[in-house]
């Protein structure tokens, strides 16, 4: 067992939360139990996630996408009320890390996915992502199959890059706007979660492959790794609650 304040202090420092200007609050979003034995983690806040975390006896829910965003209305509607009620009734802490969890060089979504894809000697890409040379260059079809094996879903391949992929940039989630940046930096392939309508033609014209492997599917890595890190640091139990999303 560990105190909520100790866990949050460690996570905030480990992820260097203060270095990021984000569109949501990072760290504690809803206060619950002061002492924590078990962490439940998931990609995005939802009523189902909170119910399953409560049923599993967790005291802290760790997510990548929290409840509160600058673009959202400030009124607590029925959907938000229902979510909050589950958290309150179960005395659950809700903790969210967004951009800090994308960008972390060890347990970030981008670093972990790039590492799994065989990107070596990673460097920062566009501030949040990671990029580098593949350990073993391969034909584009083989690379797409590699992505599918890692994220567990069939990616969408767009564009017209070279037949063999050597340099790869990764920025998970909704980062199709960085396609031009990847092309200008000389990458053969850009891996993200969601595509955008203009991306197909831009990728063709820029001579780069775009692999869109799903927003949810590309962002399961960081939150699981952080939960495991906190569990090891504070002798807690942790569980990943998988709620697959086709987007």
Secondary structure layout:
Layout lengths: L1 E2 H11 L12 E4 L4 E2 L1 E7 L2 H9 L4 E6 L12 H12 L3 E4 L2 H5 L5 H9 L1 E7 L3 E11 H12 L4 E4 L4 E7 L8 H6 L4 E4 L6 H8 L2 E4 L8 H14 L2 E4 L7
Parallel strand pairs: 4-5, 4-13, 5-6, 10-11, 11-12
Antiparallel strand pairs: 1-3, 2-6, 7-8, 8-10, 9-12
Helix pairs in contact: 2-3
Structural overview:
The structure is a single chain. Helix content is 35%, strand content 27%. It is built from nine helices and 13 strands. It has helices spanning 4-14, 47-55, 78-89, 99-103, 109-117, 140-151, 179-184, 199-206, 221-234; strands spanning 2-3, 27-30, 35-36, 38-44, 60-65, 93-96, 119-125, 129-139, 156-159, 164-170, 189-192, 209-212, 237-240. The strands form three sheets. Strands 7-8-10-11-12-9 form a six-stranded mixed beta sheet. Strands 2-6-5-4-13 form a five-stranded mixed beta sheet, with helices on both faces. Strands 1-3 form a two-stranded antiparallel ribbon. 43% of the residues are buried.
Supply the key terms:
single chain, 247 residues, alpha/beta, 6-stranded mixed sheet, 9 helices, 13 strands, 35% helix, 27% strand
Shape: elongated
Strand order of the largest sheet: 7-8-10-11-12-9
- Cα(first) to Cα(last) distance is 36 Å
Residue runs with pLDDT of under 50 for 5 or more positions: none
Portion of residues in helices? 25-40%
Provide a count of the helices: 9
